[in-house]
Design goal:
Elements (H helix, E strand, L loop, with lengths): L1 E6 L6 H5 L1 H8 L4 E6 L12 E2 L9 E2 L1 H11 L7 E11 L2 H8 L3 E6 L15 E4 L9 H12 L8 H9 L16 E2 L2 E2 L2 H4 L3 H19 L1 H9 L5 H4 L1
The structure holds the ligand N#Cc1c(-c2ccc3ccn(Cc4cccnc4)c3c2)n[nH]c1N.
Ligand JEB binds next to strand 5 and strand 7.
């Protein structure tokens, strides 16, 4: 998968693209992520990317020209990208969307700043996406959240064991099971016996029950949604 990111703050992505699972996936060539400074696609000597809003009002708006120039330049060759625009009021990002996006060969993520992008930029966009009902200062952190959730699903990025675990739980949006590690007792708090038993079938069924129970308690709508889609097995429904 290739992802092109358009932003006026490319430096925000430096650590994200160097560290951890995502950094390894990029350095090993499993995925390609290129961050482009929208300012590099301006043509004036002051490299202006924003302007005051028509009709008045606070703040500035990202101009359409530099973003269109970047899009035209980056799509001259190769497969056309599926274009995302991060927006406070976009479609809510979730695991289902992450799975869908992970199957695209190429993505482009346009990150707004200030009061947002000129409305005409949306003629380039396939999906306006929000990571939640709160207002951030720009679209870069949402872009990193989306990339993290999508790239971890690319085969080989997490390694086999992890991707197997992911398929059975988080890809259906179920909440995770409790994790423990040594010591077996810490300040009077013991690790559940089943996890010390070495009985893999019992452990798996305990984890599934914990995940379903936590999801039912905290996010019952996820269970209802899975029931409606027929994505819960008979024993999971019991
Ligand atoms: N995805 C996502 C987001 C954003 C987000 C995303 C892009 C931009 C570009 C500009 N702003 C700031 C801004 C714009 C309009 C009004 N108020 C503030 C952004 C916020 N905030 N919260 C989310 N879940």
């Amino acid at each position: 998968m290739r992802i092109d990111v358009l932003t006026v703050l490319p430096g925000l992505f430096d650590c994200f693209l160097k560290e951890g699972v995502i950094g390894k996936a990029i350095s090993s060539g499993k995925v390609e992520v290129k961050v482009h400074n929208i300012r590099d696609f301006t043509t004036d000597k002051h490299r202006v990317v924003d302007d005051v809003p028509y009709g008045g009002g606070p703040g500035m708006v990202l101009k359409p020209e530099p973003i269109f120039r970047a899009y035209d330049e980056l799509t001259k060759e190769g497969e056309k990208p599926y274009v995302l625009l991060t927006e406070p009021w976009g479609e809510k990002f979730n695991q289902e969307m992450a799975v869908e996006l992970s199957k695209k060969p190429r993505l482009m993520i346009i990150c707004g700043r200030y009061e947002g992008v000129d409305e005409r930029v949306k003629s380039l966009v396939d999906r306006e996406v929000s990571i939640g009902d709160y207002v951030l200062t720009g679209g870069e952190l949402p872009a990193m959240v989306i990339m993290d959730a999508v790239l971890r699903l690319i085969p080989g990025v997490l390694g086999n064991l992890e991707s197997l675990r992911a398929d059975s739980f988080s890809d259906r949006g179920l909440l995770g099971y409790p994790n423990y590690t040594r010591p077996a007792e810490f300040r009077g708090m013991k690790v559940p016996e089943v996890l010390l038993s070495g009985h893999h079938k019992k452990i798996e069924s305990w984890r599934k029950e914990q995940s379903l129970r936590k999801t039912l308690e905290r996010r019952p709508e996820i269970i209802e949604n899975l029931k409606r889609k027929g994505l819960l097995t008979k024993e999971e429904l019991e």
